[in-house]
Predict the 3D structure of the following.
Amino acid sequence: MKNINIGLFGFGNVGRGLYDVLRRINSDSVHIKRVCVRHIEKQRDVVAEFTDNPDDIFNDKDINLIVEVIDDAEAAYDIVKRALKSRIPVVSGNKKMLGHHILELIDLQEQFNTPLLYDASACGSIPVIRNLEEYYDNDLLCSVKGILNGSSNFILSKIFNEHMSYDAALKLAQDLGFAESDPTLDIDGWDSLYKLIIITIHAFGVYVSPDELFTYGISTMNDSDIRFAREKDRRIKLVAHVEKFDDRLIMCVIPQLISRNKYIYSVEDEFNGVVIKGLFYDKQFMFGRGAGGHPTGSAVLSDITACGYNYRYEYKKRNDSVLPTYTMDHTFRVYFRYKSAEQRNLLHFSKVREQYSSEDYNYIVGDVTIANLKAHQEELRVKDCFVAAYPFD
Amino acid sequence: MKNINIGLFGFGNVGRGLYDVLRRINSDSVHIKRVCVRHIEKQRDVVAEFTDNPDDIFNDKDINLIVEVIDDAEAAYDIVKRALKSRIPVVSGNKKMLGHHILELIDLQEQFNTPLLYDASACGSIPVIRNLEEYYDNDLLCSVKGILNGSSNFILSKIFNEHMSYDAALKLAQDLGFAESDPTLDIDGWDSLYKLIIITIHAFGVYVSPDELFTYGISTMNDSDIRFAREKDRRIKLVAHVEKFDDRLIMCVIPQLISRNKYIYSVEDEFNGVVIKGLFYDKQFMFGRGAGGHPTGSAVLSDITACGYNYRYEYKKRNDSVLPTYTMDHTFRVYFRYKSAEQRNLLHFSKVREQYSSEDYNYIVGDVTIANLKAHQEELRVKDCFVAAYPFD
């Protein structure tokens, strides 16, 4: 492996995690040469050269790898583009940036013959992208389904297992460093969505942009919903889901009522769990820490090492002669809590299976299309509503 | 990916599984050109060209990949050697052969610049070798521990969960195609051991030969042992284990009393589960079907596809400047059932923690070294004795 001198952008939770990991393994071949931060005046108890000028990294001829672990997606986009155009390999952890710009970044990798790695961006320490890229790269793959956001899962676990309030659980997740600095990214499903988009490129060769997808989170979930789940002996989990049906592909992020016999039922706290399903091998389950500075820092290290061995993603599935077509024309059984008749009429149930009404709230269990859910994504994101997929066992 | 014309050796459970998988995906680029079998006269309801002469494969210029999925380790060794020396890439599923000859086969790969892939040999459909090779290739890795044999785990599950007798469970495993044709390979831990040896080469760069390792299975387990496990709210699982402590490496295959809070407690039936533990990322758990023709056939397909992309193992860890030293000087807490005082005296307990005596049998819970267990491996393999690791929680 060649020597790696890193130019690091960002020294938050993940950047600091990477620093700790590298210091611990005391590698001969991997060093952080310089760190670019926004607030250079901040006191940091580490031995590293800091700058607030990106040029100090890009103009340093010793630096042969850029690692970008900043929060700001637009700034991350500029850094990654500039790195690729300067033919400096780059590792990124910014899923929002990737979710929006990955197609362009694939082109730039090719054009400038320079790799961009981002396994650390999806599922923290679980090597899901590498596995999809290298091992599940044949035609047997049917679906990828999982809990991809550690922070919202942590909150759900605290609510379900420890009867904590939503706000207290969110506060705790933030204090422990699991939450994004903007918590709506976690809670409303966006973080899971960006990861799902990245996963789908590798799993099925298809890119779908964030605004074409149904994304719904847990921010409007309330005690009635939790009670409903408990009565059915299920847990609510925020699930990202991509599945191929012959030549059609469905994708979405939605809370789901998960029964005990499912692998992801037992994925608790800040952990992530991914179920990869294929013909013949059936289901594979991968499970590990999905959030936190040190697990993510060690995932970044795996990307760095891979760069040292000149590894690059090949996006093999994009070369398939026939790619599946993304569709929202797919029916889910859902649980839908609502207040007004107007809200009730947002969704067109092809089949109503259960109904409940009371002075406080009402719910329906029935079958709707993803297209119907997507059409009313914003109207469903209010305190009086909550939707969750309610799969048959 | 280039076109692949396979010369297939063996058409048992896995060979047939591969045939089914390929027929199902109807690949343009992967074909079975010819199949070499021992009993050519056997009726088979498949469309393929059969031969019983290996030369028909080695001399066929169209064949650019050998896939070897036969039972006989010595014959497999000859095929793989001949393939490498003929510079034909080769995929093997024979863990016994690999466990004995892997060092020589690594040399041959290098000498003839030809790859040998064998992910399918360890853990069926779980890509454990590929992950160790590509993702856990840095210094953070501490241990790999898992249930690597689907057949013995299937038997243990039937005994523990369905109160089936040992013999009935073994028969069922054989009928379902999970067991090796020689069941002692599964039951006495040899199959797990070979897989552990292969895993360890990739995980820590160290090769230890089968006869240097303590290997102990479940064939002498009886109702008293099952009762003991149940009383402690544990399950008996056959566990392969490699762990690094600074510059020392321990390795062994031993039944373990596993408590509920462990990931592998829930690995049931023919499934395999592997826990990879590292600094910073803590534990990763991978879970999937570890036996059966179709799951293993699909794992062989992943190796075949990887060959199509010119993938090869790099055995990076073998190049580390300092490799850990294998040692048996490590103490385990064990449960030991025995009958005679002579058997009792085989093991030297540095600490005795529990003792039980009766007319029928006796047991001790106490601390012994692996070296002590290894010294009496054969004497412990009798009906009157059973040893299982009994880890602290």
